[in-house]
Design brief:
two-stranded antiparallel sheet, seven-stranded mixed beta sheet, alpha/beta, globular, about 35% helix
C-alpha cells in the first residue's frame, strides 16, 4: 500500500488523513516526512501497517496507536492515561514563552502528558516549572516525557496532587505565571463528543456543570501564589471567552483572549 493508498483509507475516519498517514509511516518505518513525499510509490504493505489501519478505522485515535506525537517540536509519549496534545494548545505555549520574564518560575496545573511545560522549557532555557497531575499513572508518563526530552527534574518538578484542593497559603507569591489546559467541557456535553475523543480520559475532559469549575477554583484561590506582575494563562473552549472574561472582571482581573489558527477563542491571559 502506497502513501496515497493509506491516505485514501484514512479519509473515512480522519479530518487530517495526510498528516496521519505521514505519522504512521514515519513511525513504523523510521522515515522522515520528506522521504515519504519524495518516494510516493513506495509500497508500505505489511502486517504492522494493516493492524494500525484496522485499529484506526475502528475509531481508536492514531496517537494512542502509535504511542507518541510531535508537539511544538518535542516528541511526546502518549497513552489512554492522558489527553492527546493538539496543535491548538501550542498557542498557549507560544503565549507563555513570549510573556514569561527572564529566569521565570511558573506553576502548571493538570499537566497530563507534560507537553505544555516541556514545550515551554525547551524554548526558554532560563525558565523552571512545577507541574501538578492528579493521577499517578499520568504523572509517571509526564516524567517519562521529561526524560525523553532531556529536561532535568531541577527544571521541571512533576508531582501528584489535586489541583482543586491545593492550599495557596503554602506558596505565597512564588510564581511568575500559573498555566493550565484544564478540563473545560460541560458534563452534559460529554456524550455528544466524537467516538475518537471519547477514547480519551473523561477526567481530562469534564469541566463540571458549566465547564468552568477549574477556572473558578484557579482564579479565586490561586492568585496569592502569583508574584507582582504575574499572570494566569489558560486554554479555553471556543465558546467560553465571555464566561472567563466576566469571571475575571468580577474578581478585579484583566482578561485578554487570543484566537487559535481557526479564529476560535482559545487562550485567556489574565493579569491580577
Amino acid at each position: 500500500m502506497t502513501y496515497s493508498g493509506i491516505v485514501n483509507a484514512l479519509k473515512y475516519i480522519s479530518d487530517e488523513p495526510q498528516s496521519e498517514a505521514k505519522l504512521i509511516i514515519s513511525e513504523l518505518f523510521d522515515l522522515k516526512y520528506s522521504d515519504i513525499l519524495l518516494n510516493p510509490d513506495t509500497d508500505f504493505s505489511d502486517d504492522a501497517i494493516n493492524t494500525v489501519l484496522k485499529r484506526r478505522l475502528s475509531g481508536e485515535p492514531v496517537q494512542y496507536i502509535i504511542g507518541r506525537v510531535f508537539f511544538y517540536g518535542a516528541r511526546i509519549k502518549v497513552s489512554p492515561d492522558c489527553l492527546i496534545p493538539r496543535s491548538d494548545t501550542e498557542l498557549l505555549c507560544e503565549a507563555v514563552i513570549d510573556l514569561l520574564p527572564d529566569n521565570a518560575h511558573f506553576l502548571e496545573l493538570c499537566t497530563g502528558s507534560g507537553c505544555i511545560p516541556i514545550a515551554i522549557l525547551n524554548n526558554r532555557g532560563d525558565v523552571t516549572c512545577e507541574s501538578i497531575e492528579l493521577f499517578e499513572k499520568t504523572a509517571k508518563l509526564a516524567i517519562e516525557n521529561r526524560e525523553l526530552n532531556n529536561i532535568s527534574s531541577a527544571r521541571l518538578d512533576i508531582r501528584c496532587a489535586d489541583a482543586l484542593d491545593l492550599c495557596a497559603n503554602d506558596n505565597i507569591a512564588a510564581y511568575d505565571a500559573i498555566v493550565s489546559n484544564p478540563p473545560y467541557i460541560p458534563t452534559s456535553e460529554l456524550d455528544n463528543l466524537s467516538k475518537e475523543v471519547l477514547c480519551e480520559p473523561k477526567a481530562a475532559l469534564d469541566g463540571g456543570a458549566d465547564g468552568m469549575i477549574f477556572y473558578n477554583k484557579f482564579l479565586r484561590s490561586y492568585s496569592p501564589m502569583l508574584k507582582k506582575g504575574g499572570f494566569f494563562a489558560f486554554e479555553i473552549g471556543f465558546d467560553q471567552a465571555r464566561q472567563i472574561t466576566e469571571l475575571s472582571q468580577s474578581l478585579g482581573f484583566k482578561c485578554e483572549i487570543k484566537k487559535d489558527y481557526s479564529k476560535n477563542d482559545r487562550v485567556a491571559i489574565i493579569r491580577v
